[in-house]
Each structure stands twice: as structure tokens, then as C-alpha cells.
Amino acid sequence: ILISFFLLNKKKREWALPLGLGIISSYVITYVLKFIVARPRPLGITMNFLFHLLDYSFPSAHAAVAFAALPVLNKTYPRLKWLWILSASFVAFSRIYIQVHYLSDVVVGSLIGYLTGLFIIKLKERKWKLTGLR
């Protein structure tokens, strides 16, 4: 839904791809780490009833995806920076509150997402410098 808002706004359309790449990349990274670490969820809760293979706790994919969007949102809508931070933090906190993640899961997931988003922005800005586009 968020990406579609960027696609509908001509001034922000160029940020739809970096936003999507940041979200998808952070999601892939978290699921690779989930498979490698294989940390069980708190209280033995099962979230994925169909595919128990990747139903692990570490790191939080929800937190990663929420924080992956932050760099692009902050860049394109800087006046709403605190709204974006509060929203992503709420997503991360909710994972702990409903007891499906440990604090470390959420912290690492948030870092993965945020750093992935920053990396995608740096790639986009480097492309602008190399091609002379803006």
C-alpha cells in the first residue's frame, strides 16, 4: 500500500523502487537469519501454521520491514519524521508486547531494516551522481 502511494505521486515516484527494494531486502535477510539461527519463539508460540520450517523468532521480520521504510520516508517526507519513527517503534514494540519475539529479536530486526534502507538510499544517490540525474 505504501509503495502504491509513492507511485501515485509524480514527485515521489522515483522513491517507490528504493522503498520496495529496502523492504524486500530486509525481509529476505531476516528469513535467511531465521533459518540459520533457528531460535524458538517465546512461550513456544507457533505463528506459521502451514510452514513450521521458518517459524523462528530471531530476528523480527516485522521490525525489519517497518524500519526498512524509515530512511526513504524520512528522505521524502522529512516533516513527518517523528510519525514514521513512532510508527516503526510501535510495530517493533507490539512484537514484544504480544510475546512473539524477544527484545533482541526486535532490536536486531530493526537494525537490519534500517541499515538496509540506508544502503538502498546510498545506492540510489550514487547512481544520481554517476549519471548526473536527480
The H/E string reads HHHHH
| Mean pLDDT over all positions | 85
Major β-sheet profile: none
Q: How far is the N terminus from the C terminus?
A: 25 Å
* Radius of gyration, whole Å: 16 Å
Number of helices: 5
Overall 3D form? elongated
In total, the number of strands is 0
Strand content: under 5%
Structural class: mainly alpha
Specify the helix fraction band.
55-70%
Low-confidence stretches: none
Can you give a write-up of this model?
There is one protein chain. This protein has 134 residues and is mainly α. It is built from five helices and no strands. The protein has helices at residues 2-8, 16-37, 61-76, 81-97, 103-131. Helix 2 packs antiparallel against helix 5. The longest helix has 29 residues, at 103-131. It is elongated.
In short:
This protein has 134 residues and is an all-alpha fold. Helix content is 68%, strand content 0%. The longest helix is centred in the last third of the chain and has 29 residues, at 103-131.
Please give the structural blueprint.
Layout: H1 2-8, H2 16-37, H3 61-76, H4 81-97, H5 103-131
Helix pairs in contact: 1-2, 2-3, 2-5, 3-4, 3-5, 4-5
Question: What are the defining features of this structure?
Answer:
134 residues, mainly alpha, 68% helix
